[in-house]
Amino acid sequence: MIAWDKLKKEDCKIIVEIVSRYVLHCPDLNYLNCIMDLEACHIFCPIDLIGLLQSKDGDFFHDVCGIFRHIDRETGRLNNFFIPRYARHQ
What we know:
Mean pLDDT: 93
Number of helices: 4
Shape: globular
């Protein structure tokens, strides 16, 4: 189960900005699903959200596309050993 209450308000705002940047290039995606996928991922695999938002296109799309491709929507965990480049080291 995903513990949505662990998200900080300021993290949610940055995630909205990340998804807004992403959908400029892929406008047919479901905006809300994209936000929820990134939020769920961030709970289990903390991401340097500001770094990701400001990253070069190659790194940005690697991480965001990878998260969307490898997220388990029931648990929020990433599958297939995918680790975003902007994952915070724990």
